[in-house]
Amino acid sequence: MILFFALLISYLFGTIPSGFILGKLIKKIDIREHGSKNIGATNVLRTLGVIPGIISLIFDFFKGFFAVEIGRLLLAQSCEHTILGFNPCLDYTNPQTYQIAIVAIGLVAIIGHIYPVFLRFKGGKGMATGAGVLINLLPIPSLIALGVFLLIAALFRYISLASLFAVLTFWIVEIIRNIPDFQEIPLLVLTTFTAALIIYRHKENISRLRKGEESKVSFRKKK
After folding, report:
1. Cα 55 from Cα 46, distance rounded (Å)
2. What's the half-sphere exposure (Cβ side, CA atoms, 13 Å) at 151?
3. Helix H segments across 49-138?
4. Distances in whole angstroms, Cα of residue 157 to Cα of each of 117, 125, 150, 180, 209
């Protein structure tokens, strides 16, 4: 039961569409009808400007981060009551059980951002929310991936390319960290699934990159 509530809260956190809300507040537009038609921070930056883009990025990052934190707090609660003699709570003091539960909570937050029920399951690409989840759970690989992201973005000014390099870097670093014992299988599964999901959501960007049609990011202030 505790895990169910944690998953539900995590998903609802993930569904909060900061880009959509900013579009309505700032320009009274549906951002899904502009630019790349995505509610993520990159399209907010291109459509609304630098400051709204940064706000969207920060909000999406922290909704992933705090979804995991809230889940962690809920899992720490003791479950002393039984239902018909059955204890509905798993033993989260078991490291493997806890790791599986916290990974599920983080993954659900990312899925909530990508497939928000309130926007007919058409959301963002999961990069910022995924970063919030992963930096909470795996800070060292996340910081390495962030460094790669910033480097690629600075050199080429393609946010999509930087995102793809970052998720692949994260995945490779996490595999290396698990060799040879592979004691963090749930976290490795999270890394693999998140990387695959984000790459899938960037399939149109990959196509445009191959054709040389992908738009570069501009940090000029919108008028």
Report:
1. 13
2. 9
3. 50-75, 95-114, 127-137
4. 32, 18, 9, 37, 12
